[in-house]
């Protein structure tokens, strides 16, 4: 293997990645370039610059990717109504391909030999980062310190900091007992007492939402305008993709919407218990299915539902940049052409209820669906032949004594 002269590190400014900067410098004798993505985690990111400078980093990238994240990753995923294992809205999963993309772009521009990340060898993120990087730059080298070093705990990381003069102003003071990851779509919690799947999460853990029982007694009504399957306005106000999601997070969180307690199957093979807050995404999923219910052809809608679990698994497992995901995405995007109109939802104590939907592209025909006189729009006698033809194979089997038990 050739020598490593320059590495681009996905850098948060936290304990793990601060240790990784020094470890890379000393283990590989290389220059470290840091990249910090602003994808709406809600934290001040400039302190990461100061920490990187204190570690001797000369080239520091802090990029605002919020609009790109929602426009090019979150919105396309929600066009598919993607849910992993029936519940998880893929908040962490969908951020990783964007971070991998930007890592590769910076590495290419900087002439770096490798990229690096702080994902552990037990989790999904190592797979997502590296599959994305290899798909976008096949010859890139990846350095994953958690798979190489012998530092296996927070205490060992703190000892390393003391031995190597790494400034960690977060060493003192109270640290959350949870491993958390946040972006504009969600915030996740793992570790601590959540490692016992029987224990209920502490109310103090949640950051984005009030408890449903503490939510306002008066519901909120919100109108979402869709064009091509994406939300373009809230209550008639045209908004950018990132602003749409931020606004829905505020509305949903205030009404106790979007909490999830889940035991999921990681791609690496283990089961993992995590909790998630996805207030805006929960509203988006409900509303998107509502606008599709009046604008999509029945078989198109059913085909999308059949493909959705596979699509969700591709994202969860790190295959956003794969040819199969792109192929399915093309079909999904084509299906969204008529998905235009407005959905009205009611937010109340943890629930999202669809209470109205309308569209100029609606396939709903009240003249045919009515229980009142349809003035000849539908001939009910046609149903007799339809039923008999569909029953033909059942009648033949029954006549041969092949009735189902």
Question: Mind explaining what this structure looks like?
Answer:
With 405 residues, the chain is of the alpha/beta class. The chain has two domains: 6-163, HUPs (Rossmann fold); 178-296 and 338-390, Argininosuccinate synthetase, chain A, domain 2. The chain has helices at residues 15-28, 46-54, 66-79, 96-110, 125-136, 154-163, 241-254, 279-295, 298-316, 323-335, 366-369, 382-399; strands spanning 6-10, 31-38, 60-64, 114-116, 141-143, 179-182, 187-190, 220-227, 230-234, 237-238, 259-265, 271-277, 341-348, 351-358. The protein has a five-stranded parallel sheet with strand order 3-2-1-4-5, sandwiched between helices. Helix 1 (15-28) links the parallel strand 1 and strand 2. Helix 3 packs across helix 7 (241-254), helix 7 (241-254) packs across helix 8 (279-295) and helix 9 (298-316) runs antiparallel to helix 10. The longest helix is centred in the C-terminal third of the chain and has 19 residues, at 298-316. The relative contact order is 0.13. The mean pLDDT is 94.
